Every structure is written in structure tokens, then in C-alpha cells.
């Protein structure tokens, strides 16, 4: 039979009265509400048109006068003359133009020779006033850059309200050329009319605005007038219909020029990086304005006539909006769009409120009719309903409220008491489990486990053991007596000792024993003297796989324990075992990762005797600098701090910062001379000189045998031998490398290379397959073959394969120039290296360790708290000015830890005494070099100052530098 639906008995009584009232309410609402809504929405459309016209009028009053004044100035050439003084005599023309234009802040002229003259009404500017450091009574400021006797000079001239000069100040050159500005270029391209620019940052004040500009008639010059964008934003901000009304002014490309976003009018005009990576004013499509964006989509799909003025109602995210759009013609520029939208909920707020009031009245009538009927029946069922609600809260893990339900019915009262106890037990268990699971410190976790178990059972003393599988024993790790850590002589317990109650519990489950206090002193020497019976509870700790993690022994100052408390303790022991095991695994994995990372770094250092210790010293210096930044209480790093995860992230990144060096050939890292590869090829060159010396002696004896003059031949031989010795000594000296090689030395090397020697044996036998392939690029000459003493041969070129190329659109963002060849081992090519010992190809191979580091670390699945390791490790060769390697990041694009590591890497490299091509710099020399790097914006200036002020440089020097390298440094000269 079908199951009958259970219904409350008072529902039947209220059906009739409720139905009548609801039908009446529906009829009234269906007739009145739509009619009143149409009237209100029509009034809103009229208000939109009025606002649109007002905005149009206000904006035209900004643009039109500026355009007209620009055209007037272009006709009269306001600043004749070529010097600053001549132009100042006619500055009144510009002053009158600005005074007539409330929206204009400055007017200026840019000349074809690069001269520039600007007059600014100082009080009108919305920002950037601190740039000028103007004296009192300054009303006008003239900015001028002009050529004086062939030299470009720049001045600031401060003027009072009568345009009288107050002060003149020559300022450093700002590298400002008006001919490169968009307003100048557009005016020159369209010289017959005034042109309006796109919004941009003003060069001096940093404000965003637009410029009207026009070429001056019959002159190679352009006049311009600036309007600041906040002026336009103020126009939009002053209009409103409802609190959430949103109004936007956009151009044809969707750039957001002004925006009032309802109650939250936080929009400030600025040029920034958009979501697509381009620069410009923010796009409306990138803002959180779904209504306005939907209006623009409607505009894009309609014709020009249709979109000139249009009202519509649209639905966005389930909410209905009234919208309005119109176009605004800008003199000399593209049309702008005015978009307005208001939610129906606010437009119809009054009628909705009226409808709510009617609903309330009808509801009161309904309640009045049925209230008396249902009162007594609900009185009896109320406690049951409350218990039902509490059961639902427990099902949804809501333990915030207490169960305080009273009833005169005994069964309901007993049920309420039982549910109250159940809720308290479940809440306690969940709180303890959550507390244990959230604890990330291993030692605190162990202490908390023992504390929680003690509080559950009421124990005053306890011991926590952890199982050590290698020794098959239980080790004591935490001991508490009266909730305090105490000294104890407790020893580890062998798992083979089955007589011990804790071991027995590990094998067969929880154990409860009643013992005299004296007997318990075997396990707890800190127990007070007592003769009464106490209870020892031994509870094993087993994880989710039923694997033994440890055990807890608790002493209760009583002859027994409540079964409910014991059950609770056993339930918590499972959560405790899982939490302990998880933390042990995490600690072991972290230790393994740290050891593996240091193993890699040690292997890189061990790979080359010349860079030994670099990968170990850089982490030390990086952490010292980070600690100094964390200690700062003022300045740029007052708020800098690292939590435990960020410290670990920095530790891992600093140890792995050169992990890419595992791919760098050892002979390049260790290259001490220019001809060195797997061996130093200077020995081949020496042997050729030896052959040539032997050839000279043989020629000498042959000439004597043929009757030659012995003394002349002897003199000639000695001269040739000396020349060969001198030439080889010079080549050997060049092979050692240095800071700079002069052009005359390169010419001398090439002259020596022109000498020839005779080879009688084939150089294509007994060699590797790869070398033979390179030699076979040219035919083998007939033997004996005469060869140059030094040469760049085709087989010296190692071509670069496709996999060694890095495309411009690579996924890592590398911006590097890749040499054409993989290697060039030409003898002349390498001997003529001007600095150091590395060729261009070898230097790229050295630098390639950075790209390899980033690619290698990018492939590792780092956990979330180590997600920045690739960025920190891969950024220490970048520079603040964006000229670094390999991504050319600017300082703003680098994290602070990456900038710290850059300083640490450079300082370690300068002071290291284990490089093959140089000695370690003294402390003063290294700091002086880094000061130049700070000046050139290669390193972070604030961090370098902190590096010196904190004394880190000296602390590191005492740890790792030789005594003779540590000299006096006046750090005040570099701060």
C-alpha cells in the first residue's frame, strides 16, 4: 500500500483562510505593480537622457575651448625668439590662454631643433607639485630646454601672478625630446588642424591626461595644451540616479576614461599593464562591470545610427538593469561613448517597498486568522522540533550552540539530556582531532598528544613512547607529571619484553592495571610517595594502516577509569597516531629533500676545483642578508618578514641557484687559458715552434754542407731562433688571458700566425669519428703539406643543433642572444679574445647554466609553499635596469629574495680566491665594484645599503675570506 504523507493537524484548519488572503494579494499585485513599474522606468529613461546631455555639455566645455585656443595659438606663434629670455618676454600669450581655460593646466611649444618651452599654472595641477619645490608666491612655472652655444640646457623659472621672475634654476638634463612625443608627431602629420592625443603620462608631473596640439603656421614648431584626466573623472562623479548607478566614459577602443562604479567610486585614471600584456588606459572589458560590457556588446552589433542614443533593459546575472548609451563627438578626435546603467531593484525601490508593506499586511491578517488555531498544538510539539533542529545541526557538524531544551514530558526531557551528552562528546573528539591535525611543529605535536590524552582520562602523569623499527623498541620522547615536564630515568623498552604493560598493550590492545604507587615508580620515578592504589593505562598508537607508531602510558590517581573516558581516549589515540605518523613522514621527507639538494650543490662544487664552495657560500650570504632585512624596523624593509615556509623556500632556492651547472662542461668552467679545452693546446703550438727551430738548424747544416759562409749562417740561425723564442713567449703570454688585450697585440698575433711549417703526416687518421666528420668538410691536402703556424680551420667550428637553439617565443620567457656556433676552437679566434679566457660561445655556455637551472627547476613538482623556488633561484643574474640574464627582468619584476641572491652571488664571486682566471678581490675592491653596479642599476641599491650598514659584508668576510683580503672599508662613502 502507498505510504501516507504525514501533515500537521493545524494545517488543515488554516488552508481555507490562507487561500482567500493569498488570492486577494495576487490579484492586487498583478494589477498595480506592472503599471507603476512602467511609469518609474519611463522617468528613469528621461533622467538618463538629461544626464547624457549634461555630461556631453560638460565634456565639450572642456575639450572645445582647448581645441579653439590651440588653433588660435597655432596662428599667432606665441613665442618668437630662440633663447629663454626672448621667449619669457612673450610668455603672456600662453598665460592668457591657460587662464581662459578652466580645464587646462599648461601650454607649451616644441621646436624642430628639440627646444621646448612650457608654461604651467602651478595652482591648477592635480598632482606632481612636489616635483617643482616651488618658492612662496609662485603662480606660474616655466620649463625650458634650449640650445645655448650648441649645448642643451634646461631651466625652471618661477613666476609670480604678474609673470615676474622669482627664481631661475638650471636643472639636470632629463633626456626629454619633444620631437619624439606623440602630440608633436601627430601635429606634424596633420598640420592643418588641432589634434587630440590618447591619454598618457605627463613627462614631468606623472599625471595622466590628454593634449591638444597643432603645428604653428609657417613655423617648424608645435603648440600644445594639456588637460588632466581627473577633471573628466570629476564630471562623471557628480551625476547619479540611484546609489548603484554606474556611469562610464569610453573611447572607440573601449579604453576607460572615467568611471563611476555605483557606491564604490574608487576609479583613478592610470596607465597600466592590461590583462593581454599591452600598456594603456584600463579597458572596460577588463573591469568588473558586466552590465556596461553587455551594453558595449550591444553597441558593437548595431549600426552607427542605432547606437547614437539607445535605451534598453537587460538581464545580468539574474538582475534586470535599465541602460542608456549615447555618443559624444570630440572636436579633433574620435567619438566617445557614454554608458549608464541602474538596477531595477533600486529604480523600483519605492514600489517594491510598497509591495512588501502590502505583503506584510496580508501576512498579519493570515497569521491573525490561523494563530489561535495552531497555538496550543504547537506548544506541545515545540521541544520535539527543537531537538530535530539540534539533530540537523549535529549532522552538519554545527556545535556552536548549546542544547538547552526543557519539557514537562519525561521522555522528551531524557532525549534532550542524551543528545546534549552526545553533542559534547562528538565536539570534543573533533576539536582534539582538528587540533592535532593542524599542528605542524613535531615537538609541539608530541606534547599536545600527551596533554590531550591526559585531560581526557584525568591523568596527572604520563609517558609518550615512539616505536623505532630499526631497534624494535619503544623510545621515551615526552614525559609529564602534574602537567609539567620532569626529569626521569625511564629507559627505552624492548618490544620483546612482553611482561611490560606498555609492550603488552602494543601487541594485544589497551591495558588497564591497578598497582600500588611504589610499583609504578618503576615507570615513573617522579611520582610522589603514596600507598593507595593507582591505575596505569597503556594505550597503543596505531595509524590508519594499523601500523604501530608508539604508545602512551597514563597514571590515574584512582582505582579505575570511566569506560566512556577510556573509549574516548582510544578513539583519540587513532587520530593522534595518524597525526604523529604524518609529521614524521613530513620531517623525514624534508630531511631527504634537504640532503638531496645539498648533495647536488656539493657535486657541482666538487665538479670543479676552481668553484668549490660557491654553492655552499651563496646560501649563507643570502640568509644573512635576509635576516638583516627581517631585523629592520624602519626604511624600505621595515615590513619585510619571512615565515617558516618562506625561509625554507629561500633555503632551497639558494642551494639550487646553480643546479644548471651540472650541464656545463667541466673544461669550460675550469678554462684557465685561452687555448685550453680538455687539455691546453698551447703544447701543440709549442711543438710547432720546436719543429720550426729544428727546421732552422737543419737548414743551417745543409747550407754549411753546400759550402755556405759559416759565420753568416750562424748569425742568421741565432737570429731566427731568438725570434721564434720571442714569438712563442708572446703567444704563451697572450694565452694566459687578462683584463684587456690591446689591438696592437692582436695584430702581432695575426702576423706570427702567417709563418708556416711543414706537416708530413696525415691528420685524419687515429682520430674520433666526430673530428673526422669536421675535417672532411674540406678535401685533405697532399703530403707533405705546408700549414700556418696558427690558424682557424673549418674543423674548429662545432655547429649548433636545433635542440641547442632557444626560440624568441620560448615558454620560459628567455630573452637571450644565442651565438651562431656551439663552439669555435680556432686558434687565432681564441688567442684574440680581448678579455679573460672565454670566447663568446664559451661565455654563453657558462651563462647557459641559468636557463638550465630555470628549466630544470620548472619541471620539478614543488609543493605550493615552495612554488617560488624557480623564480628566486633563476633570477640572481638579472639586473634592476632590465639588462640582465636570461629574462631581462626589471627590479620591479623580481622578488626581494631574488634580488638578495643576486648581491650574494656577485659578492661571493668577487671575493672568492678559487677562480682559475683571477685572484680574489680585497674587501674594499669588491665593495667599490659593487657600488658601481648599484650606480648602474645592476643591483638593488636599498639592499646594497642594508648589506653595508648591517655589517654583513664583514661578518661573511671573517667566515670565508682570507686574512690578507680583509682590509678597511669606509662604508659611508657608498651609502
From TrEMBL:
Which domain of life does the protein's organism represent?
A: Bacteria
Asked if Ubl conjugation is a keyword of the record, the answer is no
Q: Which UniProt keywords apply?
A: Membrane, Transmembrane, Transmembrane helix
Q: Which Pfam families match?
A: GAF_2, HAMP, HD_5, MCP-like_PDC_1
InterPro entries in alphabetical order: GAF, GAF-like_dom_sf, HAMP_dom, HD/PDEase_dom, HD_GYP_dom, Sensor-like_sf
Transmembrane ranges, per UniProt, are: 12-31
HD-GYP domain segment(s): 754-962
Q: Which residue ranges does the record assign to the HAMP domain? A: 378-431
Do you know which PROSITE patterns this protein is assigned to? HAMP (PS50885), HD_GYP (PS51832)
The family database entries (SUPFAM superfamilies) matched by this protein are listed as: GAF domain-like, HAMP domain-like, HD-domain/PDEase-like, Sensory domain-like
Name it: GAF domain-containing protein
Origin species, per record, is Undibacterium rivi
Amino acid at each position: 500500500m502507498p505510504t501516507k504523507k504525514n501533515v500537521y493537524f493545524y494545517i488543515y484548519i488554516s488552508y481555507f483562510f490562507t487561500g482567500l488572503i493569498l488570492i486577494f494579494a495576487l490579484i492586487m499585485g498583478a494589477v498595480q505593480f506592472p503599471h507603476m513599474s512602467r511609469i518609474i522606468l519611463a522617468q528613469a529613461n528621461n533622467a538618463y537622457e538629461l544626464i547624457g546631455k549634461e555630461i556631453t555639455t560638460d565634456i565639450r566645455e572642456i575639450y572645445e575651448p582647448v581645441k579653439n585656443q590651440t588653433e588660435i595659438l597655432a596662428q599667432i606663434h606665441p613665442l618668437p625668439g630662440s633663447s629663454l629670455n626672448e621667449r619669457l618676454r612673450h610668455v603672456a600669450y600662453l598665460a592668457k590662454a591657460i587662464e581662459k581655460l578652466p580645464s587646462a593646466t599648461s601650454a607649451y611649444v616644441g621646436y624642430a631643433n628639440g627646444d621646448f618651452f612650457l608654461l604651467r599654472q602651478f595652482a591648477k595641477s592635480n598632482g606632481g607639485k612636489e616635483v617643482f619645490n616651488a618658492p612662496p608666491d609662485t603662480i606660474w612655472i616655466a620649463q625650458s630646454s634650449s640650445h645655448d652655444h650648441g649645448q642643451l640646457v634646461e631651466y625652471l623659472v618661477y613666476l609670480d601672478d604678474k609673470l615676474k621672475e622669482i627664481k631661475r634654476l638650471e636643472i639636470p638634463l632629463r633626456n626629454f625630446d619633444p620631437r619624439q612625443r606623440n602630440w608633436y608627431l601627430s601635429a606634424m602629420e596633420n598640420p592643418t588642424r588641432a589634434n587630440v592625443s590618447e591619454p598618457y603620462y605627463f613627462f614631468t608631473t606623472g599625471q595622466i591626461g590628454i593634449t591638444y596640439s597643432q603645428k604653428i603656421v609657417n613655423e617648424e614648431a608645435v603648440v600644445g595644451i594639456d588637460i588632466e584626466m581627473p577633471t573628466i573623472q570629476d564630471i562623471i562623479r557628480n551625476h547619479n540616479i540611484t546609489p548603484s548607478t554606474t556611469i562610464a566614459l569610453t573611447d572607440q577602443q573601449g579604453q576607460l576614461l572615467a568611471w563611476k562604479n555605483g557606491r564604490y567610486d574608487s576609479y583613478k585614471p592610470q596607465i597600466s599593464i592590461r590583462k593581454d600584456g599591452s600598456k594603456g588606459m584600463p579597458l572596460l572589458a577588463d573591469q568588473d562591470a558586466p552590465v556596461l560590457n553587455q551594453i558595449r556588446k550591444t553597441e558593437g552589433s548595431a549600426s552607427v545610427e542605432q547606437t547614437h542614443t539607445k535605451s534598453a533593459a537587460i538581464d545580468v546575472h539574474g538582475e534586470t538593469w535599465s541602460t542608456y548609451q549615447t555618443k559624444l563627438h570630440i572636436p579633433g578626435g574620435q567619438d566617445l561613448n557614454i554608458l549608464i546603467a541602474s538596477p531595477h531593484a533600486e529604480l523600483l525601490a519605492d514600489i517594491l517597498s510598497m509591495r512588501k508593506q502590502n505583503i506584510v499586511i496580508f501576512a498579519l491578517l493570515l497569521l491573525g486568522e490561523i494563530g489561535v488555531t495552531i497555538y496550543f498544538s504547537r506548544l506541545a510539539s515545540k521541544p520535539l522540533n527543537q531537538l530535530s533542529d539540534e539533530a540537523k545541526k549535529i549532522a552538519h557538524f554545527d556545535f556552536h550552540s548549546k542544547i538547552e531544551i526543557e519539557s514537562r514530558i519525561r521522555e522528551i526531557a531524557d532525549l534532550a539530556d542524551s543528545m546534549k551528552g552526545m553533542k559534547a562528546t562528538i565536539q570534543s573528539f573533533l576539536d582534539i582531532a582538528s587540533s592535532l591535525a593542524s599542528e605542524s611543529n613535531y615537538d609541539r605535536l608530541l606534547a599536545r598528544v600527551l596533554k590531550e590524552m591526559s585531560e581526557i582520562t584525568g591523568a596527572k602523569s604520563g609517558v609518550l613512547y615512539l616505536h623505532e623499527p630499526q631497534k624494535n623498541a619503544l623510545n621515551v620522547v615526552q614525559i609529564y607529571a602534574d602537567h609539567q615536564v620532569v626529569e626521569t630515568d625511564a629507559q627505552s623498552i624492548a618490544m620483546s619484553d612482553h611482561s611490560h604493560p606498555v609492550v603488552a598493550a602494543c601487541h594485544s590492545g589497551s591495558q588497564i592495571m591497578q598497582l600500588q604507587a611504589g610499583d609504578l615508580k618503576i615507570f615513573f620515578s617522579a611520582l610522589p610517595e603514596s600507598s593507595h592504589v593507582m591505575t596505569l593505562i597503556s594505550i597503543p598508537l596505531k595509524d590508519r594502516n594499523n601500523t604501530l607508531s608508539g604508545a602512551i602510558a597514563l597514571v590515574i590517581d584512582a582505582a579505575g577509569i570511566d569506560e566512556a573516558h577510556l573509549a574516548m581516549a582510544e578513539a583519540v589515540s587513532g587520530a593522534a597516531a595518524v597525526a604523529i605518523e604524518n609529521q614524521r613522514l613530513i620531517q623525514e621527507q624534508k630531511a631527504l629533500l634537504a640532503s638531496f639538494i645539498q648533495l647536488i650543490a656539493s657535486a657541482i662544487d666538487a665538479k670543479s676545483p676552481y668553484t668549490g664552495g660557491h654553492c655552499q657560500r651563496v646560501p649563507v650570504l643570502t640568509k644573512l642578508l635576509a635576516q638583516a632585512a627581517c631585523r629592520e624596523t624602519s626604511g624600505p624593509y621595515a615590513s619585510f618578514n619571512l615565515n617558516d615556509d618562506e625561509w625554507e623556500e629561500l633555503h632551497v632556492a639558494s642551494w639550487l641557484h646553480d643546479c644548471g651547472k651540472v650541464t656545463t662542461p667541466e673544461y669550460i668552467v675550469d678554462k684557465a687559458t685561452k687555448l685550453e679545452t680538455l687539455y691546453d693546446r698551447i703544447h701543440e703550438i709549442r711543438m710547432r715552434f720546436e719543429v720550426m727551430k729544428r727546421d732552422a738548424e737543419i737548414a743551417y747544416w745543409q747550407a754549411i754542407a753546400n759550402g755556405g759562409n759559416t759565420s753568416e749562417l750562424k748569425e742568421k740561425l741565432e737570429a731566427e731562433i731568438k725570434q721564434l723564442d720571442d714569438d712563442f713567449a708572446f703567444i704563451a703570454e697572450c694565452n694566459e688571458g687578462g683584463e684587456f688585450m690591446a689591438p696592437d697585440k692582436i695584430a702581432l698575433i695575426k702576423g706570427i700566425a702567417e709563418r708556416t711549417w711543414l706537416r708530413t703526416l696525415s691528420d685524419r687518421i687515429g682520430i674520433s669519428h666526430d673530428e673526422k666528420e669536421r675535417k672532411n668538410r674540406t678535401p685533405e691536402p697532399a703530403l707533405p703539406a705546408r700549414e700556418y703556424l696558427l690558424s682557424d680551420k673549418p674543423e674548429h667550428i662545432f655547429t649548433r643543433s636545433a635542440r641547442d637553439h632557444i626560440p624568441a617565443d620560448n615558454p620560459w620567457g628567455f630573452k637571450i642572444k644565442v651565438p651562431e656556433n656551439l663552439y669555435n676552437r680556432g686558434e687565432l679566434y681564441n688567442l684574440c679574445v680581448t678579455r679573460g679566457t672565454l670566447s663568446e660561445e664559451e661565455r654563453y655556455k657558462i651563462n647557459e647554466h641559468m636557463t638550465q637551472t630555470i628549466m630544470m627547476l620548472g619541471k620539478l613538482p614543488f609543493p605550493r609553499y615552495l612554488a617560488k623556488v624557480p623564480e628566486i633561484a633563476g633570477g640572481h643574474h638579472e639586473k634592476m635596469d632590465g639588462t640582465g640574464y636570461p629574462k631581462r627582468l626589471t627590479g620591479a619584476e623580481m622578488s626581494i629574495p631574488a634580488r638578495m641572491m643576486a648581491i650574494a652571488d656577485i659578492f661571493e664571486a668577487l671575493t672568492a680566491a678559487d677562480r682559475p682566471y683571477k685572484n680574489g678581490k680585497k674587501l674594499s675592491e669588491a665593495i667599490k665594484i659593487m657600488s658601481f653596479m648599484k650606480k648602474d642599476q645592476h643591483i638593488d641599491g636599498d639592499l646594497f645599503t642594508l648589506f653595508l650598514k648591517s655589517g654583513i659584508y664583514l661578518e661573511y668576510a671573517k667566515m670565508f675570506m682570507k686574512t690578507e683580503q680583509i682590509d678597511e672599508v669606509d662604508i659611508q662613502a657608498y651609502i
